[in-house]
Amino acid sequence: MNASHPGRRLFILDTNVLMHDPTAIFRFHEHDIFLPMKVLEELDQGKKGMSEVARNVRQASRFLDDLIAGARKQEIDAGLPLPAPNNGPSINSTSHGRLFFQTETLPKLLPGSLPGNTPDNNILGTALALQEKFPDSNVTLVSKDINLRIKAALIGISAEDYYNDQALEDVSLLYSGEESIAGDFWERHSTGTDVWQQDGRTFYRIKSPRPGHCYPNECLFIAGKQSFEAIVKRQDSEEIIIELCRDYRDHKHAVWGISARNREQNFALNMLMDPDIDFVTLLGTAGTGKTLLALAAGLAQTLDRNLYRDIIMTRVTVPVGEDIGFLPGSEEEKMTPWMGALMDNLEVLTQTEGGEWARAATDDLLRSRIHIHSLNFMRGRTFLNKYIILDEAQNLTPKQIKTLITRAGPGTKIVCLGNIAQIDTPYLTEITSGLTYAVDRFKHWEHSGHITLLRGERSRLADFASDAL
What we know:
469 residues; alpha/beta; CATH 2.40.240; Rossmann fold; 6-stranded mixed sheet
């Protein structure tokens, strides 16, 4: 291996980086990458199975095979040219950095504080040897393993997390879906404002001076006794068109018997009940009403308005505690234990008059129109005129959430629910979750909407427990 080009950095990739993102080798721009032999061995051990990790490992191995195909030993030792990140994994694109493999035995320089020949220690030893061999190069270990990065720092190795999979630099920058506007908004825009009604809805066209940047379907409000709530419908350099929200807090506008209890829930129901919005994301802690609002809006539009044929409920099956093992039955029966939230909310929505017989008849009707599917069988399917509810979406990777959303056919609406503070999938964080990724990437699209639910409405006991425990 030759020394890195001056000004370039040499990144040592841990196995979990390629397991998490097989395209990681194309994401380091002009810098060089080094793969220890231990990483290749761990990739070989992780290639079996049908899990997401195994698929990523096999894809990473195929990328490496494409890069190394036809190369001679001298070319491998000198470093294989890496394609430009923007052009994807094509070996014919412009070279940026180089990919180096461990082709020789490196001296073991581990301190006595790290005994044993574990895979992590082996990678740390490789990093120390490269630092010793190339003192003028900036050698950096990249790993998703926090403990490995801690050990690297303790023995003087520069270590970083893998940042390319992060949708945002900080979760506080995540789009909330609503924005407060000043109380003197109407005074400042009193001239050049048009108001009209269409199909029972009220619209405002506000011309220059430009009121500021807004996203499509962003929720605007003026707090106070005479509150104002509206949703942005269109904006360009000269004007902005906003639509006055329907007040779903009024029992006359209840959705399947459910009324909004706060401003955010009212915004959520306005987006859920709008057939022009194909994709809705609802974020919020436990008890904010995400599932209940999504299910009530789905039932109203499926059974009352006939906008959709069926409601499909799905979620990723990540257990909170120990896995209970094999579940018997069909796909829907296997998913039933994971759908406790669905059953709890259906119990609220089916509190009909008429006794046990009427309740049983309502349950049979709903179960004939509500179907439970597993994410494991979504690939290759196309859903036509369906209302899809994806619960616990914070546990999905960006690749998994893309797989689901691209299943939508004509007339289908997808609602993603989740709480990014409760992620159970290994190596996923608030800023790398597929739900965060979807919120950030869809905020510019005119047929999507997002709102973060802030206030719990479950019970006074649950509210107190959330604050006190």
